[in-house]
Amino acid sequence: FQVKSENKKTIWNSEEVPEGSEFDDTWDPREKPEYEISFKQHVGTEDVFFGMTGKDPSTACCEDIVIKIKLPETKFSDITLDIQDKVLDLRTPKKKLLLHLPYPVKSKEGRARFLSEEEVLEVTLRVSRKLDFINFS
């Protein structure tokens, strides 16, 4: 077994370290908020009634990831949100969430809104997929 590295003293390559691991902090005492991940796809009558586009209810056909994070007793101004291609990093004075996303996303095309009545942050991220026979647009 040989370590393939530019520096002989390193024990792993930068490709072996998962994206977002620089945010991990095991000593941070803030609690992890409750969250829910759902997937969203845009369908029309040609999908529902005729099945013409080949879409199915699986996550492979979804265009967006919607993440709802419960943040009780939090103001909008206290939320810090950083989204990378594979990682969502949310921090508030009382809560911290480092979430490795199930699919790569287009981090610049996402949107977030804070529903103050429900105390929920809703983040919608566009999935970044390679074109194939299902995802051709």
What labels would you give this structure?
137 residues, mainly beta, Immunoglobulin-like, four-stranded antiparallel β-sheet, three-stranded antiparallel β-sheet, 1 helix, 3% helix, flat, DNAAF6, PIHD3 protein, PIH1D1/2/3_CS-like, dynein intermediate chain binding, protein-folding chaperone binding
CATH topology: Immunoglobulin-like
Question: Quick one: CATH class?
Answer: Mainly Beta
Strand element count: 7
Measured as a percent range, the helix fraction is under 10%
Question: Main beta sheet, described?
Answer: 4 strands, antiparallel
SSE order: EHEEEEEE
* Proper CATH architecture: Sandwich
Output the structural class.
mainly beta
Overall average residue pLDDT: 81
Based on CA atoms alone, the radius of gyration comes out at: 19 Å
Summed up, the helix count is 1
- What is the percentage of strand-forming residues? 25-35%
The domain tally reads 1
Could you say which overall geometry the principal axes of the C-alpha atoms support? flat
Question: How far apart, in Å, are the first and last alpha carbons?
Answer: 43 Å
Task: Order the strands across the largest sheet as they lie in space.
Answer: 1-2-7-6
Low-confidence stretches: none
